[in-house]
Amino acid sequence: MPLKDGSWRIPPPKNMNWVWKISSKLTVATVGLYSKLWLAWLNKVRVHNKEILDQAMLNRPKFKGLLTVSNHTSCMDDPLLWGVLKTRQLINRDLMRWTSAAEDICFTNKFSALFFSLGQVFPIVRGDGVYQKGTDFAIEILDQGKWVHFFPEGKVNLTLEFIRLKWGVGRIIADCKVTPLVLPIWHVGMDKVLPTCSPYIPLINKSVTYLVGNPIDFTKELKFLKDSKKTPQEIRKYVTDKIQEEFKVLKNVADQLHTELTR
């Protein structure tokens, strides 16, 4: 299914006037500060290996994009997850992430589409495959050396089961001109901060465990796969499977850390 009329509100970089830029900066800063208030100040979050995230955000080569990937257990995982960052990072639009959201949930009218677009969120049409405007845009952003966050499960995981990842993340990594740095993250407890059942009200004084994994650079592996004449489908499956394997390791560790935190 194609994007609905009005869903795509992000102007091309050359047409991004000063009104859009200022509005976007204010939106990103406001949402970032809200996230810090709710996650870091009103709840109890323990972050493991945060220095790896800081290093990837601030000290990677300028030409190399950053793709963070994480599990998805709450409708507010993004932006709340980034409440662990420093305030000066949260209010810096140029430094902060771009991320995707389901078109049929977050881009249902012109107002919501504009708000999310100003907050550096782009629409994904679920069921529309790996080749669509949203994944193309993610590749474009990464090729500019910027940060994109992606939820490769493709939905809020209501059952918290370990589910198969969607291949869109593999396509994004494989098709970038410069292979991005991939940073996996696993979190536990976000479904308690914002329950997945009615009345969907963010809560306080809940425990969240946040585990940052080791960065993955697929540059050499992708070159080998492409030189070996592997098909695009085989390549994106390989990349997605590698992320899935890393998620499994992180999940086991994060679950144990969270159990210790909540004793």
TrEMBL record:
<dbReference type="Pfam" id="PF01553">
    <property type="entry name" value="Acyltransferase"/>
</dbReference>
<dbReference type="GO" id="GO:0007007">
    <property type="term" value="P:inner mitochondrial membrane organization"/>
</dbReference>
<dbReference type="GO" id="GO:0035965">
    <property type="term" value="P:cardiolipin acyl-chain remodeling"/>
</dbReference>
<dbReference type="GO" id="GO:0005743">
    <property type="term" value="C:mitochondrial inner membrane"/>
</dbReference>
<keyword id="KW-1000">Mitochondrion outer membrane</keyword>
<protein>
    <recommendedName>
        <fullName>Tafazzin family protein</fullName>
    </recommendedName>
</protein>
<dbReference type="GO" id="GO:0047184">
    <property type="term" value="F:1-acylglycerophosphocholine O-acyltransferase activity"/>
</dbReference>
<keyword id="KW-0443">Lipid metabolism</keyword>
<dbReference type="InterPro" id="IPR002123">
    <property type="entry name" value="Plipid/glycerol_acylTrfase"/>
</dbReference>
<dbReference type="GO" id="GO:0005741">
    <property type="term" value="C:mitochondrial outer membrane"/>
</dbReference>
<keyword id="KW-0012">Acyltransferase</keyword>
<keyword id="KW-0808">Transferase</keyword>
<keyword id="KW-0472">Membrane</keyword>
<feature type="domain" description="Phospholipid/glycerol acyltransferase">
    <location>
        <begin position="66"/>
        <end position="190"/>
    </location>
</feature>
<keyword id="KW-0999">Mitochondrion inner membrane</keyword>
<keyword id="KW-0496">Mitochondrion</keyword>
<comment type="similarity">
    <text>Belongs to the taffazin family.</text>
</comment>
<dbReference type="InterPro" id="IPR000872">
    <property type="entry name" value="Tafazzin"/>
</dbReference>
